[in-house]
């Protein structure tokens, strides 16, 4: 039995462990926002969830970056790693574990794991000849290279010729077992297009890969031969295991794997798919450790239709973006506007347009004008409407009744954009409904009961929308819930589990007259277009 079957009420997800050679970029922010939204959704449903992130701090690339700045590598890593935690705070990322691969505890875990693989006779000394890309920290096949011996991913960087003794991991031994894994668990690699990529790669035949380097100081020594330094990827992937240790726990593989292993999902970008979907499962097979649930490779972000890169000078600084527009705006744009799994674009005018349309107008204004009407026409109290008497074919209730299920499926499938679309479609129907029903006219005609029914249905729909959007825009959802008179904090999951449990709040029709509505106020300010656009 897949060990994950036993762990239905817990959920562990990882982001990649980010290289600290440079400050966090929008790509790192993108994966982390998605992982956070997913973890929050798991918690909303009452599962206990663990979000693991961290920094990957060894290897030649980082050693070189530190040297270029005249710094010793450890203090350089300390500083760079802190820029990640600081960005996560700004983006309202509620991570549970932040693993740094330069810690002593990690070294103990790496050593024990290496020993297991060594004892399996899966490591041997050999001669490595090949083209190495320092930016990828990976050997490249000659046929993959671009003209001028440039890396296909870091297109402005030339690869270097290496001819040295390295320790190798017997990846080739696991080819059949890997193919069997992909066959038996067709959802192990997602989306489907990435699975096909990996299948093709593995079917072409796997070569053993080198897991040590010579002439490199910045890394852990190979436990059996200190003249070699362990390859950064061998060490980094194991960060996912070390991260699972409780803070005071003795660092052993057994302890690390006891509670949260296997990880349910590794969220990564498409460029590091091979490491996660081929090398990593093979390493785990060798060490006889159960395999993770899934690997999902998302797409790449571009800016104004162009690949982002330092050479083009068009990188997008996530810190600047979040300081200018706030966490919810950034989270919403990337998760709603880009289909997760596909490549997507950032364009500032589009960004402002989407946020104004969806959050300021459709959602924010709707709540505001409805609450003001409730004040004017219903004395400021939640209208006294019995949900049982609202017919199931009521245009808002009809959508609301199935929305929770639809959105759950979308979140489970990491279809964040689809989840947002479904929720926004209820919100848009509310706006249409109010305009058609014109409660202001009904009020003038003395049709008080009808006014109350209209306003109740809209308020309840906005509540449901806020609840289901809370994993993506927690601050706005908090504001909406508070204005509707709930004492709920979506940033505090032990609180919202009790104050707004999923089985009640993901349904339509729970708003009650007991709620003391608060003063209406804007939940998301309209953004101004920058002068240049
Ligand atoms: N350190 C390794 C991961 C080790 S995991 C055990 C690494 N780090 S990284 O910092 O270079 O990349 C981290 C993530 O950022 C990768 O998932 C990569 O796909 C992602 N992105 C880098 N540029 C990106 C975009 N322009 N768009 C979206 N994501 C991108 O690789």
Q: What's the tally of helices?
A: 20
Question: Low-confidence stretches at least 5 residues in length (pLDDT < 50)?
Answer: none
- Strand count, sense and closure of the main sheet? 6 strands, parallel
Bound molecules: 5'-O-[(L-methionyl)-sulphamoyl]adenosine
Secondary-structure-derived class: alpha/beta
What is the molecular shape? elongated
| Helix fraction by DSSP (H/I, runs of at least 4) | 40-55%
Radius of gyration: 26 Å
| First-to-last CA distance | 56 Å
Could you report the average pLDDT, rounded to the nearest whole number? 94
Strand content: 5-15%
Number of strands: 16
Going across the biggest sheet, name each strand in turn. Answer: 3-2-1-12-13-7
Keywords:
533 residues; alpha/beta; 4-stranded antiparallel β-sheet; 20 helices; 15% strand; elongated; binds 5'-O-[(L-methionyl)-sulphamoyl]adenosine
Q: How would you explain this protein's 3D organization?
A:
47% of the residues lie in helices and 15% in strands. Helix 13 (348-378) packs across helix 15. The protein has 533 residues and is α/β, with parallel strands linked by helices. The strands form four sheets. It has a six-stranded parallel sheet, with helices on both faces. It has a four-stranded antiparallel sheet with strand order 5-4-6-8, with no helix packed on it. It has a three-stranded antiparallel sheet with strand order 9-11-10. The mean pLDDT is 94. The protein starts with 9 loop residues before the first strand and ends in a 28-residue tail after the last helix. The structure holds 5'-O-[(L-methionyl)-sulphamoyl]adenosine. Residues 16-19, 27-28, 30-31, 56, 236-237, 239, 268-269, 271-272, 300-301, 308 line the site of 5'-O-[(L-methionyl)-sulphamoyl]adenosine (MSP).
């Amino acid at each position: 039995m897949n060990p994950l079957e036993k762990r239905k009420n817990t959920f562990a997800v990882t982001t990649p462990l980010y290289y600290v050679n440079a400050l966090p970029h929008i790509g790192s922010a993108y994966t982390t926002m998605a992982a956070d939204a997913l973890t929050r959704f798991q918690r909303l449903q009452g599962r206990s969830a663990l979000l693991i992130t961290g920094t990957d701090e060894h290897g030649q690339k980082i050693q070189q970056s530190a040297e270029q700045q005249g710094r010793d590598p450890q203090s350089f890593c300390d500083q760079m790693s802190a820029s990640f935690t600081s960005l996560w705070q700004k983006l309202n990322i509620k991570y549970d574990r932040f693993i740094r691969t330069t810690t002593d505890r990690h070294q103990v875990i790496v050593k024990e794991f290496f020993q297991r693989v060594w004892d399996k006779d899966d490591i041997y000394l050999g001669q490595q000849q090949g083209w190495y890309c320092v930016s990828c920290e990976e050997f490249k096949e000659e046929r993959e290279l671009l003209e001028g011996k440039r890396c296909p991913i870091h297109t402005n960087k030339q690869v270097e010729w290496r001819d040295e003794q390295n320790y190798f991991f017997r990846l080739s031994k696991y080819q059949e077992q890997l193919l069997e894994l992909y066959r038996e668990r067709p959802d192990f690699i997602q989306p489907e297009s990435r699975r096909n990529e990996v299948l093709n790669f593995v079917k072409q035949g796997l070569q053993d890969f080198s897991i040590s380097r010579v002439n490199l100081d910045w890394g852990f020594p190979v436990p059996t031969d200190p003249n070699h330094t362990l390859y950064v990827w061998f060490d980094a992937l194991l960060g996912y295991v070390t991260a699972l240790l409780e803070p005071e726990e003795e660092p052993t593989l057994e302890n690390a794997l006891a509670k949260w292993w296997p990880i349910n999902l590794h969220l990564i970008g498409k460029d590091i798919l091979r490491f996660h979907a081929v090398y990593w499962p093979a390493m785990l097979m060798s060490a006889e450790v159960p395999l993770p649930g899934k690997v999902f490779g998302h797409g790449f972000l571009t800016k104004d239709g162009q690949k982002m890169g330092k050479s083009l000078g068009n990188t997008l600084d996530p810190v600047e973006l979040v300081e200018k527009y706030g966490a919810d705006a950034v989270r919403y744009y990337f998760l709603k506007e880009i289909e997760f799994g596909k490549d997507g674009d950032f364009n500032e005018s589009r960004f402002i347009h989407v946020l104004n349309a969806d959050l300021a107008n459709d959602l924010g204004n709707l709540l505001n004008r409805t609450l003001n009407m409730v004040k004017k026409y219903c004395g400021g109290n939640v209208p006294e409407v019995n949900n049982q008497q609202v017919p199931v074919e009521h245009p808002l209730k009809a959508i609301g009744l199935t929305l929770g299920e639809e959105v759950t499926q979308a979140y489970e499938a990491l279809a964040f954009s689809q989840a947002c679309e479904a929720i926004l479609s209820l919100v848009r129907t509310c706006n249409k409904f109010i305009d058609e029903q014109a409660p202001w006219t009904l009020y003038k005609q003395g049709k008080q009961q009808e006014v109350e029914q209209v306003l109740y249905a809209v308020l309840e729909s906005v509540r449901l929308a806020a609840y289901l959007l809370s994993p993506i825009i927690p601050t706005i959802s908090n504001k909406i819930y508070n204005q509707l008179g709930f004492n709920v904090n979506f940033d505090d999951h032990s609180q919202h589990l009790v104050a707004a449990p999923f089985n009640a709040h993901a349904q339509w029709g729970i708003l009650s007259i007991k709620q003391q509505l608060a003063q209406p106020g804007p939940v998301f300010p309209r953004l101004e277009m920058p002068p240049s656009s």
